[in-house]
Amino acid sequence: MRESIMYNFFAKLQNFIEASTHQSNSEVVIATYILKHVQTIPDLSIYELADACHTSPATVTRFCRKFDNISYKELKEFAREFNDFNTNEMNQNQSLSLDFYFGELHEALDETEKMMKADNLKQVVNTLYQAKKIAFFGVTFSHVLARNAQIKFMRLGKYTSAYGNHENQLNDAISLDRGDVAVVISFSGKTRFITRLIKVLKEQGTKIIAITGTIDGHLASQSDFVISVSNRKIKQYKSPIIEEIMMQSAINALYMDYLKLLEQKEHM
């Protein structure tokens, strides 16, 4: 959970920079400096960071509060954990071969294929077809998958969305109604943000389709439809080198079945 919070913070910084139209804004300068110099952030005082960004310590403090309601001390701890994680990721995995990786990947794909139940997919595809809008949700790696799905279904003529930062995702969830559908992509299905998002969607009465590798997680238990994928992962890696491919395969299965439904509708 702590790791997820830490990575979400850095993802929010990146999303903020990308969304900003004023790159000289002091907050953008601070965010950019943190991402470019994350390895040295744990050793910098708030005065040194402010001086490097040509701003004041008070502005740095407001920046931390704005982005995740944290102190500068907590920001430094996030950076320290980020650096430690990257070091461990590089040092722990030298003994794993590509043969092992592809073997695990094939096993996971076989398991996912067996979990793709035709009746369930048909119900989900019909629900997507009838939806006025499809809103895709996911954070960090899952956001890449959500964005991929959003573009795929947009090209098929659906009104879709897939926002990057947490605030925009929550605002999107609040804007949905009973005629819309939310597709929530999360392998664990139990991060703090996903729990908060599900609460908002339930309050709106929006149908929820979950794509997850954890069938007993919070996301699966609160969703109207669940598309399950293999829960297999290579534990030596923190980054999802198998999980993301399983969830992408589920998205592709939905896309392909949706195309078949469109073809059937055209010939009716």
Question: Can you describe this structure?
Answer:
There is one protein chain. Helices cover 62% and strands 8% of the residues. It is α/β, with parallel strands linked by helices and 268 residues long. It has two domains: 90 residues, Arc Repressor Mutant, subunit A, CATH 1.10.10; 169 residues, Glucose-6-phosphate isomerase like protein, domain 1 (Rossmann fold, 3-Layer(aba) Sandwich), CATH 3.40.50. Helix 11 links the parallel strand 4 and strand 5. Helix 1 crosses helix 5, helix 3 packs across helix 4 and helix 7 packs across helix 12. The radius of gyration is 21 Å and the shape is globular. The mean pLDDT is 89.
Topology:
Blueprint: H1 2-19, H2 26-36, H3 46-52, H4 57-68, H5 72-91, H6 98-115, H7 118-130, E1 134-137, H8 141-154, E2 160-161, H9 166-175, E3 181-185, H10 192-204, E4 207-212, H11 218-222, E5 225-228, H12 243-266
Parallel strand pairs: 1-2, 1-3, 3-4, 4-5
Helix pairs in contact: 1-2, 1-5, 3-4, 6-12, 7-12, 8-12, 9-10
Largest sheet: 5 strands, parallel
Q: Overall pLDDT, averaged? A: 89
Strand content: 5-15%
Structural class: alpha/beta
User: Which architecture of the largest domain per CATH?
Assistant: 3-Layer(aba) Sandwich
Percentage of residues in helical conformation: 55-70%
| CATH homology superfamily name of the largest domain | Glucose-6-phosphate isomerase like protein, domain 1
* Radius of gyration computed on alpha carbons: 21 Å
Mass-distribution shape: globular
Fold-level CATH name of the largest domain: Rossmann fold
Q: How many structural domains does the protein architecture include?
A: 2
Count of individual beta strands: 5
Number of helices: 12
Name the poorly predicted regions. Answer: none
N to C succession of SSEs: HHHHHHHEHEHEHEHEH
Through-space gap between termini = 49 Å
CATH class of the largest domain: Alpha Beta
